[in-house]
Amino acid sequence: MRNVTLNRVVFFSKSLSLVPSLTPPQILHRSAAAASYPNRAIHCMADDSPLSQPDRSGDGSVSSAIDFLTLCSRLKTTPRAGWVKREVKNPESIADHMYRMGLMALVSSDIPGVNRDKCMKMAIVHDIAEAIVGDITPTCGVSKEEKNRRESEALQHMCKLLGGGERAEEIAELWREYEANESPEAKLVKDFDKLEMILQALEYEQEEGKDLDEFFQSTAGKFQTDIGKAWALEIASRRTKRH
Q1: Which CATH number fits the domain that encloses residue 25?
Q2: Residue 87: left (phi > 0), alpha (psi -120 to 50), or beta?
Q3: Sequence-separated (6 or more) residues with CB below 8 Å from residue 21
Q4: pLDDT of 137
Q5: Across the strands, what pairs with 190?
Q6: Ranges for the HD domain (predicted)?
Q7: Domain presence at residue 1
Q8: So what's the pLDDT on residue 139?
């Protein structure tokens, strides 16, 4: 494995040159975690944007499905940026995060008026656009409006790649509903998003002796559902006992 210099400045001009609508490349830094992930895209934008790939949209074929799934493989290999920035060893991927959110929806109690199956689908879709745009965090210097624009554009491309039709529209609608944060399902999945993050933070604190209090502080008082509040309290209680 080749050596990786800490805080090495890396310009990701190759991918951005393929996407004219995106902002100019920013100066980004690799952390020590990059040494364990030399092949991962450890930055705010994904490499080699698929927006430059041949458009096979509209055919609804088996080929379209495989193209879509191949693109989604980036979710398995792109680590969550927050952990990378804090030099967590072997940080979870975006897909890891979404998978456990899906499990949260699966094991949560039934709530009147909430479709649990829909919550599971929403959990595995909510960050799907990050296969193209990467994990954009507040420290990337991108506004919420710009982040939403980039993700919306990426989602449109992914739905076209899938071939359009019923399944593509379902994915798009689940993503839009999550972003709107108005339905009972969206509010619950938003809570799962925060819960998965603080549970992962607790686990990293236990495994690596790090202080990741900022993640707990950033979610404090922001849970919208009874399940979210109860689970957050349990996670906080376990953290207190550990200290």
Answers
A1: 1.10.3210.10
A2: left
A3: 153
A4: 87
A5: none
A6: 94-198
A7: no
A8: 83
Question: Using the 8-state DSSP alphabet, how is residue 29 labeled?
Answer: E
Judge whether residue 34 has pLDDT over 70.
Answer: no
Instruction: Take residue 127 and report the two structure tokens written for it.
Output: 């960050």
Instruction: Give CA separation, 28 vs 6, 59, 121, in Å.
Output: 12, 38, 33
Residue 202, domain extent: 9-242
Q: Which are the contacts of 4, defined by CB distance < 8 A and separation ≥ 6?
A: 30, 32, 34, 35, 38
Going by C-beta distance under 8 Å and a sequence separation of 6 or more, which residues neighbour residue 214?
none
Q: Are 191 and 225 in contact (CB under 8 A)?
A: yes
Whole-structure pTM over 0.85, yes or no?
Answer: no
Mean pLDDT of the chain: 82
User: What distance in Å separates the CA atoms of residue 182 and residue 224, rounded to the nearest whole number?
Assistant: 11
The pLDDT score that the predictor gives to residue 40 is: 42
pLDDT single digits (tens) 98-130: 999 999 999 999 999 999 999 999 999 999 999
Asked whether residue 4 is domain-assigned, the answer is no
Count of structural domains within the chain: 1
